[in-house]
Design brief:
CATH superfamily of the largest domain: Aldehyde ferredoxin oxidoreductase, N-terminal domain
Radius of gyration: 22 Å
Number of domains: 3
Bound molecules: iron/sulfur cluster
CATH architecture of the largest domain: 4-Layer Sandwich
Number of helices: 24
Strand order of the largest sheet: 2-1-6-3-4-5
Largest sheet: 6 strands, mixed
Structural class: alpha+beta
CATH topology of the largest domain: Aldehyde Ferredoxin Oxidoreductase,  A, domain 1
Length: 613
């Protein structure tokens, strides 16, 4: 691999693809930005901020889709096989970063690119082929309306290389479902926020990558591989990662149900009476084996298959905790084999399972309340626990048929369709549906969701680990803002390196990986500083789009309705307590009372050259 940058670890080039005129060219990775923002989320955010005018329609040719890897991607560093898709979200109108693992992200880097910047819109459905022998845009009209699996299989056959790796959208992306995702390697999803709809709006069906290269040059190879080997050995035995090596994320079902924070029946309860039918033990009966992303020693993935019964004939890499709960307990579904089937279909259509599950759950509550009737629902009795209706509605959503056209807009769109008080049970922040931790049993989680740059997200900070699953009192607000700020900063750097969420990598270890890979020394404090810079940049992106304090609140149900059972029984997060946390958060961040970063803070972080004075 030719490295054009002084910094090692990077491929040194970014592929720029203009779909409007078919121009494809490689440009140098901007080293100044790489030094200030690392890669992944940070570098993607810096490029997006510069490339987009404020107010751009996310589904217009003027939006930009940026796939970006990091300096340790595909180097052999553990759990570093990921890529981010950065764009303006059509679901929220905010900054969006959404991640996937598998093999495709590593193939991008190994093919010689740190990332891909996609602009414009193709006249006809197209796919991008990237190979060691060149890059080209290819006709994809024959794939119109096809699911992700058939799309990938067809492209693999067309390319004639079994090692080709494909990221694709399904019908949901083509039909601009607001929470359509991009799926790579069949079941690894750039899940949240509607990245699939952005590709759909650009008429880009897939990106296929074929490469023989398996090496990335690092600055200090001997020390790097010694460190990789030490950390990998520790990960293969450490107690901290045992849950991932054994059960994977389905382990969290029991933890959250016992803590009383498992969203159930559209967040009307935090405890699901049938949790033992959808937990890790229930899933283990369907597990063929464990699976791993490229060179990951943790191997948290579950390869499952259903061999008998009503749902037989399905094989899946999944389902993850978030899907099990948002599509399962939250919709009153009591069978893990049904969830496997639902997940299989959702991946094929290219739907984010969190938002799809949350939207269906809200529609179920609307049905219970008589706000949606059978005749509004294409004859479906979309009630909690009705597996048949819950599976069939996916088809209506992915193709925007009938009521599916409304549900394709997510819970905020459904609330506006229903009118009246329906907004009170629409569980979202900034338009993004809440994931599977009820903040009434983990107050700091409300702050983490509400201040997240892409809307309600559990991956920027996860204080539930200290509160509901740890030793901190989950029902107090004092001192919690500090935890959220620290984790958001560290994770902004983590998503820029890019490490997997499930590797509990410390800031020290990140600094060491970066130093040995790139040859430029970073310390623990630098990791936090860069993370803070990135966090403020994405905030400024959102501020430029009109977001501020008014958008930083949890949903009505969290603040006004109490949970009825479990350890969080009788709990809600009163607005005045939430406000205390929020104001403390702004103060610690150096933001004003409207939640806008001050000039002083922006100068201190060296951001004024990007966002202006
Ligand atoms: S921990 Fe799991 S999801 Fe993360 S990189 Fe490893 S196998 Fe993939």
């Amino acid at each position: 691999m030719v490295v054009l940058m002084e910094l090692k670890g990077y491929a040194g080039r970014i592929l720029w693809v203009d779909l409007s005129n078919g121009e494809v060219k490689a440009r140098d990775t901007p080293e100044d930005l790489a030094k200030e923002f690392i890669g992944g989320k940070g570098l993607g955010a810096a490029l997006l901020y510069r490339l987009l005018e404020p107010g751009v329609d996310p589904l217009s040719p003027d939006n930009v889709a940026i796939f970006m890897t990091g300096p340790v991607t595909a180097t052999g560093a553990p759990a570093a096989s990921r890529c981010v898709l950065v764009t303006k979200s059509p679901h929220t109108g905010t900054f969006l970063d959404t991640y996937a693992g598998g093999y495709w992200p590593s193939w991008l880097k190994l093919a010689g690119y740190d990332g891909i910047v996609i602009t414009g819109r193709a006249d006809r459905l197209t796919y991008l082929y990237i190979g060691d022998d060149g890059v080209e845009l290819r006709e994809a009209e024959h794939l119109r309306g096809k699911g992700v699996y058939e799309t990938i299989n067809t492209i693999v056959r067309d390319v004639g290389d079994k090692n080709v790796r494909v990221a694709a959208i399904g019908p949901a992306g083509e039909n601009l479902v607001k929470y359509a995702c991009v799926v790579c390697d069949y079941h690894h999803n750039f899940g949240r926020g509607g990245g699939g709809a952005v590709l759909g709006s650009k008429n880009l069906k897939a990106i296929a990558i074929s490469t023989e290269n398996r090496e990335v040059e690092v600055a200090r190879p001997d020390e790097f591989s010694k460190f990789v080997s030490e950390v990998s050995k520790a990960l293969a035995t450490s107690e901290e990662h045992e849950w991932a090596r054994t059960d994977g994320t389905p382990a969290v079902v029991d933890w959250s149900n016992e803590a009383g924070i498992m969203p159930t029946y559209n967040f009307r309860s935090g405890v699901f009476r049938f949790a033992d039918r959808i937990n890790a033990e229930a899933l283990s009966k369907y597990r063929e084996r464990k699976g791993a992303c490229y060179k990951c020693p943790i191997a948290c993935r579950n390869i499952v298959s259903v061999r008998r019964g009503k749902y037989k004939g399905v094989r899946l890499e999944g389902p993850e905790y978030e899907t099990i709960v948002m599509a399962g307990a939250n919709c009153g579904i009591k069978r893990i084999d049904a969830i496997i089937k639902w997940n299989y279909i959702a991946d094929d259509y290219g739907l984010d399972t969190i938002s799809a599950g949350a939207t269906i759950a809200m529609a179920m509550e609307a049905y219970r309340r008589g706000l949606l009737k059978k005749e509004d629902l294409e004859g479906l009795e979309l009630d909690f626990g009705n597996e048949e209706a819950w599976i069939r509605i996916l088809d209506y959503i992915a193709f925007r048929r009938g009521i599916g056209d409304v549900l394709a807009e997510g819970v905020r769109g459904l609330a506006s369709h229903l009118g009246g008080d329906a907004w009170k049970f629409a569980m979202h922040i900034k338009g993004l549906e809440l994931p599977a931790y009820d903040p009434r049993g983990s107050f700091a989680m409300a702050l983490a969701y509400a201040t997240s740059d892409r809307g309600a997200c559990h991956l920027r900070a996860w204080p539930v680990g200290y509160e509901a699953f740890g030793n901190l009192d989950p029902f107090t607000v004092e001192g919690k803002a500090q935890l959220v700020v620290r984790d958001q900063n560290r994770n902004a750097a983590k998503w820029s390196m890019i490490f997997c969420d499930f590797y509990a990598v410390s800031a020290e270890a990140m600094a060491k990986f970066y130093t040995l890979a790139t040859g430029r020394e970073l310390k623990k404090a630098d990791i936090y500083l860069i993370g803070e810079r990135i966090w403020n940049l994405t905030r400024m992106f959102n501020v430029r789009e009109g977001f501020d304090r008014k958008d930083d609140y949890p949903p009505y149900r969290v603040m006004r309705e109490t949970l009825k059972a479990g350890p969080a029984k009788g709990k809600r997060l009163p607005k005045k307590d939430y406000e205390k946390m929020l104001m403390e958060y702004y103060r610690l961040r150096g933001w004003n009372a409207r939640g806008i970063p001050t000039k002083k803070k922006l100068r201190e972080l060296g951001l004024t050259k990007i966002v202006g004075e």
